[in-house]
Design a protein that fits this description.
The structure holds two protein chains of two kinds. By secondary structure, chain A is mainly alpha-helical. Chain A is 75% helix and 1% strand. The longest helix of chain A has 27 residues. Chain B is an alpha/beta fold. Chain B has two domains: 237 residues, 3-Layer(aba) Sandwich (Rossmann fold); 159 residues, P-loop containing nucleotide triphosphate hydrolases (Rossmann fold). Classes of the chains: A mainly alpha, B alpha/beta.
Chain lengths: 317, 492
C-alpha cells in the first residue's frame, strides 16, 4: 500500500467498519436477490442505535486510557429500563416521571462507579463489573413487583421512522456528530484524550484529571440508562436479560470502529459502522441459514479480519 | 570475526537519510577505531541521533555503506545483526521496560541468560556492571525500574550496554548519557569509558557538554545540517572552535545576565524553615530561583509539592498564583505523543481560549503559531505530529506550553536536559524576559553552569536545603560543597 493511501486511511480509522458493513449488506442482498435491501438496512440501523448509544460512553472510557472501561453497562441498562417502564406503567401520564427516574438511575450508577474507582481506588474493570452486578440484582428484585408495559408515546417514539429511517438513529447520529466535535474542539474532549495518552503529563499540564475521569464514567452510565429505557420501550417492556449482549458489544463497536484500545484517540463515526456491521452479520448468516455454532465462528472471523486490516496504523509508529 | 589489516572497526561511508521532505543526513562519512572514543557534536536536529540509530541498526539508511570489522554489513542490517557484531547503543530515550527490574531488563537484552537460575545470574551481571561503572550507585536490581528516578534508570541503561554474555562488546554508543546523570555519576561514567577503551572497546559519545567532550574524547566530529562539517583530535580543539563549527550564533554571555534583578515584592511561594534546615524557601514575583545539588536529593519533591499546593492548599507551603510545570522527562511527563505540535502547545491554555467550553480553531492556531515563532521551534507547521520533532525541539514545545499557559509561577524540572547550547541560550533569554514581566521561576537543574541564570540558589542534600546562595556569591565550589552536605549552617 502506498504511503499516501496509508496515511489517508490512518486518518480515517472508521472507514474499515463502514466498508465491511457495506460488503456484508451487499452479500446479504445477493443471497436474497435484492429483496428488501433497504428494509434490512433500516432494521439493522434500529438495533445499531442501541449499540451506538452505549458505545459512545464506552468509547469515552476506553479513550481515557489504559485501565479505563465501563463493565456496568448491562446492569445499568436493565435497572434503568425496569425503573422507567415500571413508573410509566403503560400510561403516558407517567412518561416524564419514568424518564427522569430512569436517567436518575444512570446518574446514581455513574456516581457510584466514580466513588468505587476514585474514593476506594478499585480498578475500573473490577469496580464497574461489581457495580453492574449490584444493578442487575436490583433489577431482579424490582422485576418481581412489576411487569408493566411502557408508555405508548415512548413505544411509538422508539420505533418511529422518518422517510424510512429510524428516528432514534437519526437523533443519535446527530448526537454522535456533537460528540465528535466535542472530542476535537472542546476543553472536556481534549482533556479526555490528553489523559488517555499520558496521565502524568496531563496532570502536570494543569488538567483536572480526576474530574475528567469522573465525567467520563458519569456520561457512560447516563448513556447506558438512556439505551436501556429506549430498548425496553422498543421491546414492549423491560427484560432481565436485555443488557446481556451489551457487555461485549459495547467494547466491540468501540474497537471495530477504530478507537485505539491504548487510549488517547477516539473514532465516534466508526461506532455506527461497527454497530451496523455487527447487526448485518447476524442478518446475513440468518438468511444463509447458517447454524448457531458456525454463526459465532463467522462473526469472530469478521471482527478479526476488520481489525487485521485496520492494524497498519499501529505498526507505522 | 577478524579485522582486516588496518581497517577501522566501523566505517560509515556516504550515509544519507531523509524523513519525507526533511533531509536528516546528507552523505556522512565517519570512522571509528577500536579502543578510541569518538565524540559527535552538533545542534539539536543536526543529525547526530539519526546517524547513531543507523549505526545501531534501528533505522535503515537511504544510501551509503556501513562497514563493520572490515566487512560491509549489507542489507538486512538491524538491531540483531548490530548486537551480534558487538555494537551496543544507549539511547537518549530510555528503552527499559518500566514494569521490569534491572535484572529482568538485562535478561531481555541477553537471550543467553536462560534456564534455571537466570534471575540470579542476571542480577549478578547487571550488579557487577553497575558496580564497575557507578560505584556506590545504591540501585536495587530487584525493583521495577519505573519506580526509580530517571538518573538511576539512565545508570541501568548505560551499565546494561556494557554487559556481556555470548557476544563481546566492541562498540558502545552513548547518546547524551550524562544529560540525566548528576555530576558525580557523569564523572564516573567518563572515567569508566577510559577503562573500556583500554580493553579495546570503541565508544561513540554524544553530548552537549563541550568540556566533557574535550576532556575525554579522542576525536571529535562536528555535525551541522546532516553533514560532518569538521573533525579533529580532541586535545587540539578548543570549546570556541567547536562552537564556531557548530554554527552557534554567540548570544549574550549568560554569566553576567544583563538587567537581572532581585524580583518584585509579591511573594509567590513560601515555605517556612523546618527543624532540619535553617533555610526557608521563598520565591517572589519576577524572581528566578535555582534548585541545585545532586540528582534525587529533594529538588523534584519541592517542585511537586509547590505544584500540588497551587491546586489544593497544603500545610506548611503557601503558594499564591497559578503554576505551570515543565519536565525534562518528556516521554513520561511531557508530550502527548498522538498530537500535533499545536495541540501540545495549547493544552494548558484551553480554558482561557474556549468560549462556552468550545475552542475556535483560529484562536488556538494563533496561540500555537505565536509560540512556535517566539521560541523558534523547528517544524514546517504546527499541524505536524510532535514526535516528528527532534528531542530538543520537543522540549522547546513543552517550554512553550508553560509560557503559553501564562502562569504566575513556572516550575522547571531540569527542562533543558539534552538541549543544545544555542537553544539553551535562546531559552535563557526567554526566561529572563518572562521574569522581567513578573513571572516567577523555580528552576531545578542538574547542570551547575545553568545556575548563573538564577537570582538565588537553594542547594539540596538528602531532602533538606544546605545552602542559599545569592547570584553575586555563586561559585561552583560553594555549590559542590553544599551538594555534599557541607553548606553554610546559618541562613544568609
Amino acid at each position: 500500500m502506498s504511503g499516501g493511501l496509508r496515511a489517508w486511511l490512518d486518518a480515517r480509522p472508521w472507514i474499515w467498519s463502514f466498508g465491511a458493513a457495506l460488503i456484508v449488506w451487499l452479500v446479504t442482498a445477493l443471497v436474497v436477490q435484492g429483496r428488501g435491501m433497504l428494509a434490512t438496512l433500516a432494521v439493522a440501523l434500529q438495533f445499531a442505535t442501541f449499540y451506538a448509544i452505549v458505545g459512545i460512553g464506552q468509547m469515552f472510557a476506553i479513550a481515557a486510557g489504559p485501565g479505563n472501561i465501563d463493565l456496568s453497562i448491562p446492569g445499568v441498562m436493565t435497572f434503568a429500563g425496569y425503573i422507567a417502564i415500571g413508573l410509566m406503567n403503560g400510561s403516558n401520564h407517567g412518561l416524564l416521571a419514568g424518564l427522569a427516574a430512569g436517567i436518575g438511575v444512570g446518574i446514581a450508577a455513574g456516581v457510584f462507579n466514580v466513588l468505587l474507582i476514585q474514593a476506594l481506588r478499585i480498578p475500573p474493570m473490577i469496580g464497574t463489573l461489581a457495580s453492574g452486578f449490584v444493578f442487575q440484582s436490583m433489577a431482579i428484585a424490582y422485576s418481581r413487583t412489576t411487569n408493566a408495559p411502557p408508555a405508548p408515546l415512548l413505544v411509538s417514539f422508539s420505533a418511529a421512522r422518518l422517510l424510512g429511517v429510524p428516528l432514534i438513529a437519526l437523533l443519535f447520529i446527530v448526537f454522535t456528530g456533537l460528540v465528535a466535535a466535542a472530542l476535537g474542539r472542546s476543553v472536556f474532549g481534549r482533556a479526555v484524550l490528553a489523559v488517555g495518552q499520558n496521565m502524568r503529563a496531563a496532570r502536570l499540564a494543569g488538567l483536572a484529571v480526576r474530574r475528567t475521569l469522573a465525567l467520563v464514567y458519569l456520561l457512560s452510565a447516563i448513556l447506558a440508562a438512556i439505551a436501556g429505557i429506549l430498548l425496553a420501550a422498543y421491546s414492549g417492556g423491560a427484560a432481565l436479560d436485555m443488557g446481556a449482549d451489551y457487555l461485549l458489544m459495547s467494547i466491540a463497536v468501540v474497537v471495530l470502529g477504530g478507537t485505539s484500545i491504548a487510549g488517547g484517540q477516539a473514532s465516534p463515526a466508526g461506532l455506527w459502522g461497527a454497530a451496523t456491521l455487527l447487526d448485518l452479520v447476524v442478518t446475513m448468516l440468518n438468511v444463509m441459514r447458517v447454524g448457531a455454532g458456525v454463526r459465532y465462528v463467522v462473526t469472530g472471523l469478521i471482527i478479526i479480519g476488520v481489525l487485521a486490516l485496520a492494524k497498519g496504523r499501529d505498526e507505522a509508529t | 570475526m577478524t579485522d582486516e589489516a588496518g581497517e577501522a572497526f566501523v566505517r560509515l561511508i556516504g550515509i544519507s537519510k531523509s524523513f519525507g521532505a526533511v533531509r536528516a543526513l546528507a552523505g556522512v562519512d565517519l570512522t571509528i577505531q577500536s579502543g578510541r572514543m569518538v565524540s559527535v557534536v552538533g545542534h539539536n536536529g543536526a543529525g547526530k541521533s539519526t546517524l547513531m540509530q543507523i549505526l545501531a541498526g534501528t533505522l535503515a539508511s537511504d544510501t551509503g555503506e556501513i562497514r563493520v570489522a572490515g566487512h560491509a554489513v549489507g542489507h538486512g542490517y538491524g538491531v540483531r545483526r548490530a548486537s551480534a557484531l558487538g555494537i551496543r547503543c544507549v539511547f537518549q530515550e530510555l528503552s527499559l521496560c518500566p514494569n521490569l527490574s534491572a535484572a529482568e531488563n538485562t535478561r531481555i537484552f541477553h537471550p543467553a541468560l536462560a534456564g534455571p537460575g537466570w534471575r540470579r545470574r542476571a542480577r549478578r551481571l547487571i550488579g557487577d556492571a553497575l558496580q564497575a561503572i557507578f560505584p556506590d550507585h545504591g540501585i536495587d536490581p530487584r525493583r521495577p525500574v519505573g519506580e526509580l528516578p530517571i538518573g538511576q534508570r539512565q545508570m541501568i541503561e548505560t551499565a546494561r550496554a556494557f554487559t556481556e554474555t555470548d557476544h563481546p562488546v566492541r562498540l558502545v554508543i552513548l547518546d547524551e548519557p550524562t544529560a540525566s546523570l548528576d555530576a558525580t555519576a557523569a564523572e564516573q561514567l567518563l572515567r569508566y569509558t577510559g577503562e573500556a577503551r583500554a580493553r579495546g572497546i570503541a565508544v561513540v559519545f554524544i553530548s552537549h557538554r563541550l568540556p566533557e567532550i574535550l576532556g575525554h574524547a579522542d576525536e571529535v566530529f562536528v555535525m551541522r545540517d546532516g553533514q560532518v562539517v569538521g573533525s579533529g583530535a580532541a586535545d587540539a580543539l578548543t570549546e570556541a572552535q567547536l562552537v564556531e563549527m557548530m554554527g552557534v550564533v554567540r548570544g549574550a554571555d549568560p554569566t553576567h545576565a544583563p538587567g537581572w534583578r532581585g524580583g518584585g515584592e509579591q511573594i509567590r511561594v513560601e515555605q517556612p524553615a523546618r527543624a532540619d534546615t535553617p533555610f526557608r524557601v521563598q520565591l517572589r514575583a519576577g524572581e528566578v530561583v535555582g534548585l541545585a545539588g545532586l540528582a534525587g536529593h529533594g529538588q523534584r519533591e519541592l517542585l511537586q509539592a509547590v505544584f500540588d499546593a497551587a491546586f489544593h492548599p497544603a500545610a506548611g507551603l503557601r503558594v499564591n498564583g497559578s503554576v505551570a510545570y515543565v519536565s525534562g522527562d518528556r516521554r513520561t511527563e511531557g508530550i502527548f505523543p498522538l498530537w500535533s505540535v499545536g495541540r501540545n502547545t495549547t493544552i494548558s491554555r484551553l480554558r482561557a481560549l474556549a468560549r462556552l467550553g468550545f475552542l475556535t480553531q483560529a484562536r488556538e492556531a494563533a496561540l500555537a503559531e505565536e509560540w512556535r515563532t517566539r521560541l523558534a521551534i523547528r517544524t514546517p507547521d504546527i499541524g505536524r505530529p510532535i514526535t516528528s520533532l527532534s528531542g530538543g525541539n520537543q522540549q522547546k514545545v513543552l517550554v512553550a506550553r508553560a509560557f503559553a499557559a501564562e502562569a504566575d509561577i513556572i516550575l522547571f524540572d531540569d527542562p533543558l536536559r539534552g538541549v543544545d547550547i544555542a537553544t539553551k541560550r535562546e531559552l535563557y533569554q526567554h526566561v529572563h524576559r518572562a521574569a522581567e514581566a513578573g513571572r516567577a521561576f523555580l528552576w531545578y537543574t542538574t547542570e551547575n553552569t545553568e545556575l548563573v541564570n538564577c537570582d538565588r540558589i537553594y542547594v539540596f542534600y538528602r531532602g533538606t536545603i544546605t545552602d542559599e546562595i545569592a547570584h553575586t556569591d555563586l561559585t561552583e565550589e560553594r555549590v559542590i560543597r553544599a551538594s555534599f552536605g557541607a553548606g553554610q549552617s546559618i541562613a544568609v
